[in-house]
Structure of Aldehyde dehydrogenase (NAD+):
Amino acid sequence: MSTPRVEPPVLPVAADWTGSAGFETRDPALGKIVGRYGAASAAEVAHTLATARRGFGAWSAKTANQRCDLLAAWLGRIESETDALAGDMTDEQGKPLAESKAEIGKALREARQMLGFARAHGGQTLPGRAPGWTNTIQRRPRGVVLAITPWNFPVLTPLRKLVPALASGNAVVLKPSEYTPAAAMRLVRAAHDLLPEGALCLVNGAGDVAARLVASGIDAISFTGSVPTGRKIGAVAGANLVPVSLELGGKNAVIVDKVANLDAALDAITGAAFQCAGQRCTSISRVIVHADHHEAAAEGLTRRLSELKPGPGRNPQTTLGPITTQAQLDKITRLVRAAELDGATVLTGGTRLTLPDAPEGLFFAPTLLATDDAENPASTEEIFGPVLTLTRYHSDDEALRLANATVFGLTSAIFTDRLDFANRATAELQTGMIHVNHGTAPDDNMPFVGIKASGLGTGSVGPSTLDFYTTEHAVYVAG
Ligand code: NAD
């Protein structure tokens, strides 16, 4: 994105839009403005919802296979725009270009897998109550679905919502993060002339615009973001009896047992902790290591962190991009200070970085904190940055107790050479996703789901996602 022209507040564009800017986005590595956007007014929100309602009528009248064929064509267009999309993402979110491209590739693989699930999703016939009777369970689209997304995965998170919702026959209104709307707008524009008008709409703006949409007459809400925002949305949805899926934060632990190949475990942990500068809900943020390996893990991680290359995402050498927003950088700095004040030791990093080639950039040094205190902020708070906490344990019981000592329950991993410990961990780790002997990267066909404060309702990605976007009907036909 080179020219920050003013982008519209809604797609499709409302007829009376004047072109006045509502907010700007900045390249977090270079500090320059890269986008200007209109923020939707109350009238534009109402207009968009009415357009989506009409779009739902036309879109839901198609068969599932017709919809999936059109969505497959849309995914093809998105793929052909990979370079431009990756540029949008890197310029607004900050992640290295290679990571942006990898995100688009993963999003497309998941989306294509979802179309396969959607083509086969539907009713079930059960034995009737009398000869000649049929009992069928049918599913129908819900109507107009609201999708609200955060700034860390500007393509993956929207597609995880749009594809299953649309494939099930719903119209969707997407409200992307006000920090990263460019990629979302490109996705929605790529659907133009493939889908009926209104089947896929986009509304730009910050939390106030999103809150207005939440309180409007929509039929389901799929939200990914922070716990405080999730609570607000859940409260309104509960009052209105609107079904809601909340994908929230994490404080993800990895247990490192006395493994023979510690290096392999540390490599996987470093990858899972520092991609996207640690701004991933599934980032590993706590390493719970057997006391016998504590020193070697501290040394091995410190060395790996020193090998990361912080820099602007468009620099091909960069492996650690900037923090996306000033507010997030301030939060990371505050939490690392709080951890130190509470007794954690900074083994490496711990401060903001000023880079000669990007002096305005929002960089934070890759950081390793050591604490054995499960109450320390380094053990409890979602820092959402390039910060890893190292904690030692002495027994299997203690390792599992420490891993579960968090309000969050998104993902976890264990590295062990013992099958009995692996089996016990898969049964006792209190997270929606559990990985044995690899990092926390989820597969393209498995539920992406959290428990406890990490999520409410159905997750995304796996086949159960389609249940969230459809209503269930028990139909009895007497013979
Ligand atoms: P956020 O909650 O601040 O914002 C997310 C979205 O909600 C944005 O589009 C924002 O405009 C909107 N919003 C803000 N106030 C709102 C309100 N009152 N009502 C409705 N919508 C409102 O989160 P963020 O800072 O953009 O993202 C970071 C958080 O997202 C982290 O906590 C991270 O763990 C979480 N996250 C979770 C997952 C997951 O799948 N579990 C994935 C990515 C990010």
User: Anything to note?
Assistant: The chain has a mean pLDDT of 96. The radius of gyration is 23 Å. DSSP finds 15 helices and 24 strands in the chain.
